[in-house]
Fold:
Amino acid sequence: MTSIRNVSLTSLQTLETPAAVIDVPRMLHNIHRMQSRMDTLGVRFRPHVKTSKCVEVARAQIDAGATGITVSTLKEAARFFDDGVTDILYAVGMVASKLPAALALRRRGCDLKIVTDSVASAQAIVAFGAEFGETFDVWIEIDTDGHRSGIRPEEDALLDVARVLHEGGATLGGVMTHAGSSYDFDTAEALAAVAEQERAGCVRAATRLRDAGLPCPVVSVGSTPTALAAAHLEGVTEVRAGVYVFFDLVMHNVGVCTTGELALSVLTTVIGHQAEKGWAIVDAGWMAMSRDRGTHKQKRDFGYGQVCRIDGSIVPGYTLSGANQEHGILSRDREPDADIVARFPIGTLLRIMPNHACATGAQFPEYHAIVPDGDPAVWPRLHGW
Amino acid sequence: MTSIRNVSLTSLQTLETPAAVIDVPRMLHNIHRMQSRMDTLGVRFRPHVKTSKCVEVARAQIDAGATGITVSTLKEAARFFDDGVTDILYAVGMVASKLPAALALRRRGCDLKIVTDSVASAQAIVAFGAEFGETFDVWIEIDTDGHRSGIRPEEDALLDVARVLHEGGATLGGVMTHAGSSYDFDTAEALAAVAEQERAGCVRAATRLRDAGLPCPVVSVGSTPTALAAAHLEGVTEVRAGVYVFFDLVMHNVGVCTTGELALSVLTTVIGHQAEKGWAIVDAGWMAMSRDRGTHKQKRDFGYGQVCRIDGSIVPGYTLSGANQEHGILSRDREPDADIVARFPIGTLLRIMPNHACATGAQFPEYHAIVPDGDPAVWPRLHGW
Structure:
């Protein structure tokens, strides 16, 4: 377990707050943990860059062995392609209005894969492809847990969509699924069961396509919890996961990381107190932490985040219990701290671990990446669509 | 009541989704509604630009009669000062580490006012002012409802802080309070009572300062609900409010606006369905809507937002009932809609009214401002700190 105990604290003290801080050794630990697991399981790994939206982070993932990336917007695809990544899966259902942007990327040399789960969209893709002479690489989204989009493995629509694509001249690239419901569990047994359901469902869909004489080279599954819980990945060719790169309190509650693996935090300054209530007021409100309250229904509710000292070590029992736009309310969980003013004087720098790294990161235009020796580096982050 | 029925729908159809759309006639209606009320009550009005973070919006507020603005970050102060606004209140408690940025703004000619509620910060302000030869204009934050920061009107600390500032050479500019707890009520009587508590508490603090021989020219109060509910504002010199400029579903539940006054919405495209569940999947997930679930505990829970047609008219009973990062789940509130595919075919453009305009706006780098005739204008929005 890499530690950041010896990070240059002086350099953190010069940052304006609130600031999003990446603990680079922890991030690299997380990247290597996931990549080595994927290598052991014998599958390719395609990280979802929607978590970081940051080319420096994606480069570290690719340097560690990732083959291509997953994106959540076409703006991400364009940004990461500009940075040299060519193998990109846009993992949100394609619609006609977004095909021109997808075409533009492919014409520039991007090996962009797109996704569909309906005959209507498949028809739009092949019609547009025919009109512009483009052979789109299309994957069919499979629903293995009922949480969002996709065609269930046994549905007739699976073959209908596949035939529209295949007969319409598109490349039928494979099937993909995402077991987002894995976030709802917190035992190894339950996570392993969701992972097996995700694997088996996606493999079954691929088998149905192949049995019908249709191509299905790729079988792509993944979420951070299932990627870390799967007992085996027989029949799967690649895995996708996003939040593992930073982890967060939601993932900690799910049980797939320790708090010592959380690589993203928000640096904040104590700006006041309500001493009688045991509150310190910090300059990280919901604009900095995001409104994500993902731990609210989990086994432990961390409010708007776990309070840490500037060196990243946890202050047990202290969380952000409330948040206004630019004000966070820091308090002790069980009973008010009568010594709150002395414990956290005005001007104290603290770091807050977030509930959900994808949501918190999105509030910031850039990260400050810290390493044991040396100044923080500024890593820009993509914003918007 | 201004309507947008005759907005150019063709121009909306060319926007990439998701997109943040401002209905300009509605926004101007809201601005004039609030300004005329302030004029009638005989107070100056200082809108809080944290809601829009957009110079075009602030210009409309100033054109309508606002005297100065309120900001939530020093980055906002710098941006709006660059645009020509000089009278700016930074309404978050000042700390030593932010004084250099405040000094830089004042040295450039910005009439920046800062806020404190502690002896420690007051001492830091006067020490820094003495060191750099700057006379800061400081307002004391008053706590009139216990929801966040500030000194209660009868606390000894009020005079202690005021004397540190006054004797230390700062300009004691006044007192300010924000009754954020007003968001928790939804009857005219309760809102009027919170407004009176806010007014009376802040005036009482001013009276205590003046009785002690200390200056207190400004008495500044405000929140959108209390600004709209106050029976009178005797003793108050100025009011601040932010979200009224767009309003949102939270404010609708509070009871201070109709849905016809909501000026901000998110344009989205239907990208898929789960027909058996009665779901349409749209490309506005929580990254577009924000994670704000402010209506969850109110009298009506709108999920992640109210569904509207492209012309802005409401589709009654349909909300975003769930959200992933780039996927929204649109469903009928009471029972699944068996006709969801026909009602909202793939490619359909819809607009979603947000729970909280400040949070939803923050997810976008720019707004698309629509007027009855003509193309949407792109209005940039400030992001980060």
